Amino acid sequence: MFANPSISEFERAPTRARPVTDELSGAYPLVLHTEADPTNLGGTAVCGFSTVGSVGVIATSHLITSLNLDPMGTVLHPEFPAVALIHDSVPKHPVRVYQGEELGVFTSEIQFPGEHDVYFANTVLEWFTKGGFDRLIVIDGVVSNDLGIKEESELWGVSSTKKGRELLASSEVQVIKQGIVTGIAGYLIAEGERRGLDVTALLAECNPMYPDARAAMIAIEGLSNIIDKEIPIDGLLEDARNIEEKVREAFERAQATALPPPTGDEDDVPMVN
Questions:
Q1: Percentage, residues of the chain above pLDDT 90
Q2: Is residue 267 situated within a structural domain?
Q3: Coil, strand or helix at 89
Q4: What percent of the chain has pLDDT over 70?
Q5: CA distances (Å), 171 to each of 62, 92, 224, 232, in order?
C-alpha cells in the first residue's frame, strides 16, 4: 500500500487525505501530503520525538531544514490536540514525515502522554516497513548525571541487529551492554529485535532542564558517521551556544536575587512567648 504505489492512483484525487497505515494494526493513520511523491522512498529512516531535552525533535528538525527534505505526510487522529505549528509563516501539523535522497524523517514537535508511545512506535514501524527503508535510527536523549552545561557529552547506542551493533562500535558510539531504554525508543529497538528489523537507538547525554541543542548536535554527528552522509551542524552549534548563554544568564540572575543563608544558629533566635 505504501511501497511502490502507482503515482497515477494519487493524481486522481490530489487534494484528498490519503491514509497509508492501518489503524487496526495499533498504529495511527498516516496521510500523504498533497505534494508528496510516494515513489521517492527508501534508504535510512530517522525518527525523533519531543522527549527528554528535546534531543530527538531538535535533531530531526535540523535534518529537515539543513538537508531541505520534502514533506511526505502527517499523522492524524481525533485524540490529538487541534493545533497548528507555524514555520516561516506556513502552518503545519505537529507530527510529520519528510523524505529526501535515501533519507526519510519522522518527527513530532509536541509532547504526548506516555500512553501514546506504543501507538506512535507502531506508526513509525509501519512507515518504515511499508516505505521500503533499509534501517531505522531513533534519536533520543538520556539524562546526564551532571546537570551543568558541558562542552562534551557521551553518545550511547543500542541496536536490534549484530550488524547494527558492530556499526555503532566502529562509529565510536558507546554501545550499551546492560540497562533499560524506555519510551518509544525502547519499544522500537525491542520490536526490531523481535521482528528481525534493523533498528538502532542513538541516545545523547543531555540536560533535561532545557532544549539541549548541543546533545542533538552530538547525535547528528553520530548519525552522520553511521550513515556515511555529510550533515552540516553549524546552525545547531550556534543554537546550542545561544541556549547555553541564556541558561547561564538565568542562573546568574537567580543567584543574584537569592536570599542569603542564615548566619546564626537556631539557638540564637529569640523565642517570643
A1: 63
A2: no
A3: coil
A4: 77
A5: 21, 35, 9, 18
What are the backbone angles phi and psi of residue 235, rounded to the nearest 5°? -65, -40
Q: Which domain holds residue 18?
A: 7-252
Give the CATH number for residue 19: 3.40.50.10900
The reply to whether 153 falls in a domain is yes
C-beta of residue 30 within 8 angstroms of C-beta of residue 1? no
Task: Give the CA radius of gyration of the chain.
Answer: 22
Whole-model pTM: value is 0.81
Q: Is the pLDDT of residue 253 over 90?
A: no
CA 219 to mean position of chain CA atoms: 10
pLDDT score at 51: 93
Neighbours of 15 (CB within 10 A): 5
Cα 258 off chain centre by: 36
155: three-class secondary structure by DSSP = strand
Number of compact structural domains in the chain: 1
> How far apart are the C-alpha atoms of 56 and 47, rounded to whole Å?
7
Given a contact cutoff of 8 angstroms between Cβ atoms, the answer to whether 124 and 47 are in contact is yes
Cβ distance 152 to 204 under 8 Å?
no
By the 8 A CB rule, do 93 and 74 touch? Answer: yes
